[in-house]
Write a structure and sequence with these properties.
Helix content: over 70%
Strand content: under 5%
Radius of gyration: 25 Å
Number of helices: 19
Distance between the termini: 76 Å
Largest sheet: 2 strands, antiparallel
Amino acid sequence: MSVLGTEKFKVYTHENRGRVLLLFLLFLLAIYQLTTTGITGLAMVCAIPIVLLYVVIALKYKMFTFWTLFIVNYFVMFLNRYQYMPIPSSLPNELLEIILIAIAIIDIKELSLSRFTNAMFIALIAWCGFCTIEMFNDTCGLGFNIGAWYTGARLMAFQLMYAFIVCSIYIADPKRINAFLRMWAILSIFAAFWAWKQQNIGFTDIEKSWLVYAGRTHIVNGIIRYFSVFSDAANFGCNMAGSAIVFYVTALTNKIRRERIFYLIAALCCTWALFASGTRTAIFCFIGGMMVYLVLSKSVKILFSVGSLFAVFIVLLAFTNIGNGNSMIRRMRSGFNRNDASLNVRDINKEAISKYIQDAPWGIGVGMGYENVPANNKYRKLSTIPPDSEYVFIWVHTGPIGITIFVITTVVMLFGACWIVMFRLKNKALIGIGGGICGAFAAIQVGGYANQILMQFPNVLLFYGSLAVVYTLPLIEKEYDKYEEEKLHEQEQKKLLKDKKKQKA
């Protein structure tokens, strides 16, 4: 039997020399990676055939690839917590985005220069260009560390550009825009459900183990801050605040009754979730983002009524003890307490950073951290102080020059989108979608100012990607008008059928 098997193997290798050689080389590479980098390297090599197969499928089903990216982006931190990610958590996102861009280049019909000639693209080029120059930053006097720089630049700059390009290309017609919002809403509802499950049914064993490590920040004065499928409670709360804005506004301005109800349910789920997160910043994210939308709505009546409601809400939180029996309200109320211990620690950290950063106008370098900067280095202290905020993190690593460029480019991106909503769009539903997204983008920036969540998953693809969609809205407005008319006609037809059935009954 063994002799027969050997003969068959010889025949197979003779007929398939190329395949056998390729498999043999992959086997050698896998063994080499296992001995040098461990199980992670082995997993990456073993994933190569799967990636190649996926590329073949992706070329045929482009939108399937995009929705895979969208879902993976949302759950990547959840999978990472459960150790289902044998590769770096940012790698699946980056690979899928590069695949989608490559498909668009191959299928040149997907590309349109009009989608890239806008303020957001120019601002992102400026920011990515600056972060590329940071490759030559040797403030710490340790020489150029290209590997550390690329790791940092991918997360700080390049993923923003990837999100812009991918969403500009693939979310560029009415059906896809509505599908984008629906998928976002479905995932947000699931995230709220998972937080409810943590609160009422309990944590999984892995989540309990994670809480042992993160208990200092997630169990405060006996109050548990729920984190759902996100990296932490702050990320969860700020994301839910921004998402709630998008869904409230879409529900308010959409003409299709069924969709209005769906988005309202999603918005209410997100609102409950932002309180469940116990993240004080989430309240300010929601208020700040809604105020941006109210200005864009150009309605004095809405601005006055909702603005008054927010003012009453803030007064109740800041100057009364109403609702103190609820642990989550007590946690939110502490955000207005200037003597809060955690807020004071942040102020102390910022003062310490400002003293060191005076001698580092370009920052300590993108990708440079406590693992790169030795103990005897002048800037070791900067690499070890907790930044507590995405803006402070950027300030430390790119200096006053970098944070100035980042703020300017962010303002340009947001202002350009707001200009489109206020002056270029006529369709009420599109104005609602665009205004809600602008409000959500402003909200997540507020979150990034207070917490290190801006560049975390899934925020970049959701908020920077959706802002890119706003820039495409004027290009498809006529098409959207027709799409909306068809949907309204379908709605009327269904209503007529229901009325006829009632009359017969």
